[in-house]
Design a protein that fits this description.
Blueprint lengths: L1 E8 L2 E8 L4 E8 L4 E9 L3 H17 L3 E6 L11
Antiparallel strand pairs: 1-2, 1-5, 2-3, 3-4
Length: 84
Amino acid sequence: MQLVTEYAKRRNTIKLSLNTKKKKMIQTVYRSPENKLVKRLSFTGDTVEEIALIYLRQLNKYSSLGYEIKKKKNGKVLTPSFKK
């Protein structure tokens, strides 16, 4: 499953991409108006739950900083369940 969320605030655009098959999340920061790439971070994990938790933390971080959701692709709700 691939999940992509874009946040925007003033001149910054943040793109979070989660790929559960590759167990990888990519965070990309762009500067408007010319969409210049500022930084790109890649997170990998051993399990899907671990990488989903990182994705949810980043979503929460940018929501609390006042960023608004600009675009959402495959907008499925993720609820990680942990087995003991």
